[in-house]
Sequence to fold (225 residues):
Amino acid sequence: MKDFLISPSILSADCARLGEDTANMLASGGDMVHFDVMDNHYVPNLTMGPMVCKALRNYGITAPIDVHLMVKPVDRIIPDFAKAGATYITVHPETSEHLDRTLQIIKDYGCKAGVAFNPATSLSYLDYVIDKIDLILLMSVNPGFGHQSFIRSNLSKLCQARKLIDISGNYIHLAIDGGVKVDNLSEIADAGANMFVVGSAIFNTKNYQKVINTMRKILDQITHS
Ligand code: DX5
Ligand code: ZN
Fold:
């Protein structure tokens, strides 16, 4: 397994040609698919549901799909995404009345579980659930839209999260989501992230392969302790 994973967010893909654009991104070197689900309630935007996830699977997308749920309430929709082919299901603690139960639902349906942290959300939620998760996703923008600027306080938060993962001894991915570009990738990786959600910096260019290759080269020069 690769140390570093590039997880392009199809929020910035061409919605009218989503299957083709996603396949093109994967053929260009993306490791997985980041699937942003927004409900116009928890976040001020409305995007894709389980039907679209299922449609991507039916189209032939076999890569892991990380379904990032920005949906409140969240529990009811989890089984639908599991049945639609999600690999990871990542939830925000604020969207659940009972985070432990929500994570258990994700596991019960055979998916890997992730917890997402907004820029102002404390990592203390991890105190009692770190043994139940496969992925920690730090939001480096406020959730709702692509193409926002990276909030730099997340660099120290990444270091904190990396320490917590190391202390736990568990195999947990540390993902960063929002404002990730070629220019800031190196310092983000140095801070401890191993999974990089990248939307506009890939999909708003013509040559996905060129950007992904450039990112890969930057990451190749970094080794985690
Ligand atoms: C924001 C989403 C992100 C977004 C990232 O709420 O969770 O995944 O698509 O897009 P960029 O890379 O353009 O900031
Ligand atoms: Zn996301």
